[in-house]
Write a structure and sequence with these properties.
By secondary structure, the protein is α/β, with parallel strands linked by helices. The chain has 2 domains: 298 residues, Arginase, Chain A, CATH 3.40.800.10; 71 residues, no CATH class. The chain is built from 13 helices and 14 strands. Strands 1, 2, 3, 4, 5, 6, 7, 8, 9 and 10 form a 10-stranded mixed beta sheet that branches. Helix 3 links the parallel strand 3 and strand 4. It starts with 5 loop residues before the first strand and ends with a helix.
């Protein structure tokens, strides 16, 4: 595996872990240390890794230096009854160039995902999402990316890759592995109307902050994600001061933790990252503590995965056929989790097969029975046809 890019945790971190309470996360997680080397990754479910490079973080370039502070708070928390093996692989130090850091992260994530180990990435700038996405190049599958952010980060095509332009690079550059992008929590005044129109023309999804505060909306979105990227600047500054781009509006701490838990519950999510935490701007460790709790809630979610779609076939679901105009919409309900999916019938390419069932809510089914076609059906059909 390509884990040579990872440095062990420092002695100061290990000393603080040794002073953590008995039965805390510090005793639950196996760590990469100078003395013991890499923990065995055989049978590991989760791998935590830090990326200490903030050179691509626009107006927040000292981010990346606080990942060990997050660990201090995380390892003082108590684990749930999770029954899964978690390893901490240490940190990726800044490369000679930012491209070197991207290369290292891409290879580490690729190696972990190939072994069905879910990486939790603590960054660094959100531009690292691009390297996370590129880790899927050799997996020969289309992926869905969900970003929790106040901004779309499209930038200009001519712009260099950074935290404000990484999405345009993902959308435009080859190989094109992106099936769908979804933004959760954008604030309209931070995004031009041209950007909003562009996402709409690409049949991508975007939910304003006010909409996304209805957290029931978030669950089916996360259920369809492969990669989840959270900019801590999506949280209001009073809740998370450790970000130079945070504003007075945004998610509350409990809301962003619920979103992280929904990401963990999703059977499809195979990588998860929290970015843009700037320890040098934090106040009394408030943001570091919140990021640690977000990681905890994500882990709690993973432990509660129902292992329904795509782990079992739709034949095991309850099937509901709803006549709508001149068509029939087919819904499926899992008897394991009670969650709903909507089938897209028109497929011209086998590479889209894993996207044939799109997650939906019970409300979508009720709307269909009232002859209201869910918007997610239109967008999915446009991409799949």
């Amino acid at each position: 595996m390509n884990l040579d890019f990872l440095n062990p945790l420092g002695e100061e971190v290990l000393e603080r872990m040794a002073s953590c309470p008995e039965n805390s996360m510090a005793q639950f997680v196996e760590v990469h240390s100078e003395e013991k080397g890499f923990p065995s990754i055989e049978n590991a479910s989760i791998a935590i890794l830090g990326v200490q490079d903030g050179r691509g973080a626009v107006d927040n370039d000292t981010t990346g230096y606080g990942v060990d502070t997050v660990r201090d708070y995380l390892y003082n928390l108590y684990p749930g009854n999770w029954g899964m093996r978690i390893v901490d692989l240490g940190n990726i130090a800044p490369g000679a160039t930012l491209s070197d850091t991207y290369f290292a992260l891409k290879n580490v994530v690729n190696s972990l995902v190939k072994k069905d180990i879910l990486p939790i990435i603590l960054g660094g700038g959100q531009d690292l999402t691009y390297a996370n996405y590129r880790a899927y190049d050799s997996l020969e599958q289309l992926v869905n990316l969900v970003s929790v952010d106040a901004k779309f980060d499209l930038g200009n095509l001519e712009s260099s890759l950074n935290s404000r332009s990484y999405l345009s690079k993902i959308v435009m550059e080859e190989p094109a592995n992106l099936f769908n992008f979804c933004n959760i929590g954008y604030q309209t005044f931070f995004n031009s109307q041209e950007e909003i129109d562009l996402l709409e023309s690409l049949s991508f999804d975007a939910y304003r902050l006010g909409e996304a505060k209805n957290l029931e909306l978030v669950e089916p979105i996360m259920r369809d994600a492969d990669i989840v990227s959270i900019d801590i600047g999506s949280v209001r500054k009073s809740e998370a001061p450790g970000n130079n781009n945070a504003g007075p509006n945004g998610f509350y701490g409990d809301e962003i933790c619920a979103i992280a838990r929904y990401a963990g519950i999703s059977d499809k999510v195979t990588s998860f990252g929290i970015y843009e935490f700037n320890n040098r701007l934090d106040i009394d460790g408030q943001t570091a503590h919140l990021v640690a709790q977000m990681v905890w809630y994500f882990l709690e979610g993973v432990s509660c995965r129902a292992k329904d779609y795509p782990y079992c076939t739709k034949e095991k679901y309850l099937k509901y056929s709803v006549p709508v105009d001149d068509d029939v919409m087919t819904f499926y309900k899992s008897d394991k989790s009670g969650r709903w999916w909507l089938e897209i019938h028109s497929l011209n390419d086998n590479k889209y097969k894993r996207h044939a069932l799109i997650p939906c809510a019970y409300k979508d089914y009720l709307d269909a029975t009232n002859q209201i076609v869910p918007e997610r059906w239109f967008k999915a059909l446009k991409k799949l046809s």
